[in-house]
């Protein structure tokens, strides 16, 4: 596990889990805001300094993070925040360690599998992967995540590092993930956030999470697509802070 550590190591633990195809740098505004907390920002399998890895597994990432939290968070309140596939990893962590985590903020997680798409992923990536190295194409992709501004160069650098095999695994994991059966047994308080402009599948997924866990709340953020922490970091930070203080 590769991670960055910030803030007060005696304070409650706050773990930020990035999305697929980006990196821990997407949480820069959160790290600055939550400087009084003990913040940890991990690098997921196949990303950044772990780009030599060819595989990606939501479950394996979750296990790595649970082990890290047990090492760093003994006797502390533990809060986790995840974006996109990072949010799916949060749900998997709650599934595997139902009493470990105090609160979780789940931003833009898909929990309705699209298994029929899996067969198309590998051939599609094989055809389109060279486009990732094209800067103009990368800017179009980055714009969908609100990363076409100050974050673009880091986003583009991250894209150049990633292997095609890793990208295939990330997409397969993302599109086949389903809600864990035992989520309702967890003691974790969950806040689900989703952008009002996001795809219907994400809105349906958010409602499905709420329906299966009595300690879950949901906020739909108007006029926001996929990338709330980047699009409006101040509002995102305030929502996270309110959740963990309660």
From TrEMBL:
GO MF annotation: an example: hydrolase activity
Pfam families found in the cross-reference section: Abhydrolase_6
Bilayer-spanning residue ranges: none
Domain AB hydrolase-1: 14-238
InterPro entries, alphabetized: AB_hydrolase_1, AB_hydrolase_fold, AB_hydrolase_sf
Coiled-coil regions listed in the entry: none
Key words of the record: Hydrolase
Name the record gives this protein: Alpha/beta hydrolase
